[in-house]
Amino acid sequence: MRLLVLGGTEFVGRAVTEEAVARGWDVTVFNRGRHAVPDGVVALRGDRTRADGLAALELGVWDVVVDTWSGAPWAVRESAERLSARAGRYVYISSRSVYEAPAPRGLAEDGPVVGGSPDARDAEYAEAKRGGELAALAAFGERALLARAGLILGPYENIGRLPWWLSRIARGGTVLAPGPEDLPLQYIDARDLARWVLDAEGLGGPFNVVSPPGHATMGRLLEACVDVTGVDAELRWTAPETLLAAGIEPWTELPIWLPPGELYDTLHQGDASKAQAHGLRCRPVEETVADTWAWLRSLDGQVPHRADREVVGLAPDREAAVLSG
Ligand SMILES: NC(=O)c1ccc[n+]([C@@H]2O[C@H](COP(=O)([O-])OP(=O)(O)OC[C@H]3O[C@@H](n4cnc5c(N)ncnc54)[C@H](OP(=O)(O)O)[C@@H]3O)[C@@H](O)[C@H]2O)c1
After folding, report:
1. For residue 211, how far is its CA from the centre of ligand 1 (angstroms)?
2. What is the pLDDT of residues 271-307, one digit of tens each?
3. Cα-flanking dihedrals φ and ψ of residue 60, to 5°?
4. Whose CB has fewer CB within 10 Å in the chain, the N or C terminal residue?
5. CB–CB of 275/208 below 8 Å?
6. Ligand 1 and 7: CB distance under 6 A
7. How many structural domains does the chain have?
8. From ligand 1's centre to the CA of 138, what distance in Å?
9. Nearest atom in ligand 1 to 34's CA
10. Which of 128, 122, 72, 137 is nearest to 97 (CA)?
């Protein structure tokens, strides 16, 4: 199989690239060359935001293209149009953010989506992802697969959510743990997402690519962090009302966590049964946590962070204030 990854060297794209190399596929990545390219991969260079940026893609034939673009949709349109006659299918790594918010509990792929244009040069995240979907569909039709990922965790994460929890727990002591402990979580390990999109031959259209709700709980996630870091940390489970009354920002100050409510239903209670029925398998949270910790330890403190995403995590003094209150 000949795979072209548009991107391919940071987090999700990197997982796709590594999975394909492990399968013995011929893998080409296309990017600006700012990140190390995994061994065994052909690297083409170009900047998708420039008018002449796709020149390196003028030649070449691929069975499948995976596009991880999350910026303005016109860049997806340009590459999808250019590749439609020379590539078998086009996988666009989309997001469950394309659904109109708040998305009710149990929303499947036929839920209402935000507006978007494949031509947009400036768009907010949800509209940009929808515009990217429309661009892929316009050029590839039924050969376009829209992988609507939920929260993504795992090694190489450059948003900082699981890395923050691991780093915080590795400092030890009493840890502010957002309850309830049995709060069901929904996410996808980037490597399970990668496997699924590479296995998804013959599939087209939208799929929610995320674990079933409750694949893990807040308790299992944080206990796994305590186990792998091996430190003496006490998880102090704290009620959502207490955290909200203290002004703690869910999701950003305490990553991954949302208090029960509308936003929680949107992000942790989606319907992923279609992808499950088409072969999506999700590894246990303990494995995701252990592998992410092993990766973090290999970095010498240089944890990557996407410049266009906010920094997440709770400042130590704010944590201490809530714990002592
Ligand atoms: N994180 C989550 O929880 C979450 C949830 C749902 C969906 N998603 C989606 O998951 C995807 C994450 O993908 P990723 O960023 O991890 O993919 P990636 O393919 O691993 O990394 C981004 C790639 O884009 C390249 N790139 C950046 N700017 C470029 C430009 N101007 N021209 C050409 N190449 C460029 C980067 O290389 P260079 O810098 O060297 O160019 C890099 O290879 C996104 O589509 C996001 O919307 C994420």
Report:
1. 21
2. 999 999 999 999 999 999 999 999 999 998 788 999 8
3. 120, 145
4. C
5. yes
6. yes
7. 2
8. 21
9. 40
10. 128
Indicate if ligand 1 lies below 6 Å from the C-beta of 70. Answer: yes
The DSSP symbol for 99 reads B
Q: Say whether both 66 and 163 belong to one domain.
A: no
Ligand 1 pocket check: which of 47, 54, 70 to mutate, most ligand atoms within 8 Å of Cβ? 70
| Whether residue 252 is found in the same domain as residue 121 | no
The bridge status of strand 184-185 relative to strand 216-217 is antiparallel
Most informative mutation of 3, 19, 32, 125 for ligand 1 (most atoms within 8 A of CB):
32
DSSP result, 266-297 = HHHS---HHHHHTT-----HHHHHHHHHHHHH
Report whether 212 contacts 36 (CB < 8 A): no
Give the pLDDT of residue 98: 98
Domain final residue, candidates 149, 176, 204: 149
Q: Do residue 177 and residue 310 come from a single domain?
A: yes
The answer to whether residues 131 and 227 belong to one domain is: no
Q: What is the pLDDT of residues 61-120, one digit of tens each?
A: 999 999 999 999 999 999 999 999 999 999 999 999 999 999 999 999 999 999 999 999
Does the beta carbon of 270 lie inside 6 Å of ligand 1?
no
User: Nearest residue CA, atom 39 of ligand 1?
Assistant: 34
Same domain for 142 and 166: no
Percent of the chain with pLDDT over 70: 100
Q: Is the CB of 130 under 6 A from ligand 1?
A: no
- 219 and 260 belong to one structural domain: yes
Q: What is the mean pLDDT of the chain?
A: 97
pLDDT in the model for residue 243: 98
188-233 confidence digits (pLDDT tens):
999 999 999 999 999 999 999 999 999 999 999 999 999 999 999 9
For the entire predicted model, the pTM comes to: 0.98
Is 112 inside a domain boundary? yes
Residue 178 parent element (H or E): strand 173-178
Please report whether residue 273 resides in a domain: no
Clarify whether residues 132 and 170 are in a common domain. Answer: no
Nearest atom in ligand 1 to 10's CA: 20
CATH code assigned at 114: 3.40.50.720
Q: Same structural domain for residues 60 and 82?
A: yes
